Amino acid sequence: MLLLQVLPIEPKYENHLDTIVLVSIFICVVSCTAYLWYQKIRSIRVKGCVQKPMTEAKMLFMIRWSVISTLLGNMFVYIDRVYIRGIDYSQGFRNARYQWNNSSIPGSILSKCGNLMIPFSYCALFLGLYHWEYLNKKNRIISIGAGFGGQFVIAMLNGGRSNILLSICFALVVCVLRKYNGKSFLPRFNGRLLMIISASIVILYYVASILFWIADNDIDYLQKVADMLGAKVKAGYVSNPIVNMLTEIVLYILHGIYFIPAVVENYQLPADMNHNISFRWIFVMLARTPLLSDYTMELPEFDVGGGNFIALPGILIYDYGYVGFIIACIFWGVLLGSAIKILNTNPNNYGMGGLVLVIFILLHVYMSVMTMALNFGYFMFMIFAMVCMELIARAKYGKSSWLNVIVEP
């Protein structure tokens, strides 16, 4: 909120004070409920099977599998886009996105397989980042490179940004897990700051290159982008192309906050299944089966992202009204308190189910000012990939915790 205040933009909806009130209520109710719930359950002993530490062989097997799956998956998607659907990337990633969105040729089996394989990059990212100290230099580079690189490549092929955003937030969750389990928040290595700055510059340039035209980024273009994202340029602002670009990037990431007043103005109850944002991607996937064949997605017109980028408080109000909003805040507070309980439990006492639950909850909490993690189609595939990876590795190496590893001599 403070970051948005220093930018040369302001909300275009008149009732923007509602945003401050509703976001404050969301933070207070979720935080207080999480604290009270954690205090209630903190002394409860977790009963369950003790997970044995993961062997080094199992960890390296999962890294290799994830890297191969990521490379093949991106290759399959590229072949589908270029040679089957005829997408021309020479005109830029942004133009390519419009081409494949408007293409009358459906995705081939290669595209479907590729999109199922690429999320295994999150497994490599998790293992490389969490178990950094146990890996040699080669495996560190391979796992982190496949983790972030795999998502960066599919983001370029899609001409989108959500994959990059999700992978960064996922890495943040892994760092929190590291800290709770006695490790440093970030892995220690020489040139860490330089690498972070370099990666940030590459990501910012990529986002700018596909979303904004840097060369002709004048005040008129800034006004157009701001209006599309729920904001307007402040009176008296003297245009500067660099400031315009940085403003547009920050606004793109955080503009979900600006759409909360639009939700207050436009929401109608009851919100039926076709208008529901919270579970839209679940409904979209089920609509491809006989279970929900009559589903028709009808999402808010005021968000150009079709509901993808509305801050979580706004989504809850849009779907469930004010009473439902308070109930949902309490629910998320209980989930967060439960996640804190798991984080403070010996990692050997919870397995893949507990790990996935913590990642699910923390990703939603950290992304709440931007959107709802469940709104990203790749979020569910990420969960699928982690569970599937454990089942594959378990068949060969047995059941074990991802949070502890035995280094073999």
Explained architecture:
Helix 7 (about 135-160) packs antiparallel against helix 8 and helix 12 packs across helix 14. This protein has a two-stranded antiparallel sheet. The chain has a two-stranded parallel sheet with strand order 2-4. The N and C termini lie far apart (about 50 Å). It has about 400 residues and is mainly alpha-helical. The model has no long low-confidence stretch (mean pLDDT about 80). The chain is about 60% helix and about 5% strand. The chain is globular and about 65 Å long. It has one domain. The protein has helices spanning about 1-5, 15-40, 55-85, 95-100, 110-115, 120-130, 135-160, 160-180, 190-210, 220-230, 240-255, 260-265, 280-285, 310-345, 350-365, 375-395, and strands at about 10, 55, 230-235, 400-405.
Describe this structure in a few short sentences.
The protein has helices spanning 2-6, 17-41, 56-84, 93-101, 109-117, 121-130, 137-158, 162-180, 192-211, 219-228, 241-254, 260-266, 280-286, 312-343, 352-366, 377-397, and strands at residues 9-11, 53-55, 231-233, 401-406.
Topology (SSEs and partners):
Blueprint: H1 2-6, E1 9-11, H2 17-41, E2 53-55, H3 56-84, H4 93-101, H5 109-117, H6 121-130, H7 137-158, H8 162-180, H9 192-211, H10 219-228, E3 231-233, H11 241-254, H12 260-266, H13 280-286, H14 312-343, H15 352-366, H16 377-397, E4 401-406
Helix pairs in contact: 2-14, 3-5, 3-6, 3-7, 3-16, 6-7, 6-8, 7-8, 8-15, 9-11, 10-11, 12-14, 14-15, 15-16
